[in-house]
Amino acid sequence: MRKNWQLNVRLQKKAKMRNERASERRAELKKRAETDPEAAAKYEAMKAKERANMNRRNAEKRARAAVDSEYAAERKAELAERYKKEYA
Q: What is the 3-state secondary structure of 15-75?
């Protein structure tokens, strides 16, 4: 059991480092996009891809909520907590 726990911690550390590097690369690309047209095109493409992924994930969540009432209740509570207001 201990090895699984250690593996999980190691994977979490790797994921955190990967996310930090991605954030640094994104910030660098955003800064370069202000002056370099090629970098601006890459940055816009990256943003479009992120938007498409976000829209796809949200559509999947909405579809699942339409079928699974328990998931819908959890999602509603999560959104209410996140935005601190009631959703009808």
A: HHHHHHHHHHHHHHHHHHHCCCHHHHHHHHHHHHHHHHHHHHHHHHHHHHHHHCHHHHHHH
Return the amino acid letter for 77: A
pLDDT in tens, 48-84: 999 999 999 999 999 999 999 999 999 988 888 888 7
Residues 70/78, Cβ–Cβ less than 8 Å: no
Question: How far is residue 17 from each of residues 25, 37, 86, measured CA to CA in Å?
Answer: 12, 29, 36
First to last CA, the chain: 44
> Could you tell me the sign of the dihedral formed by the alpha carbons of 11, 15, 16, 21, in that order?
positive
Q: Which of 56, 51, 49, 20 is closest to 41 using CA atoms? A: 49
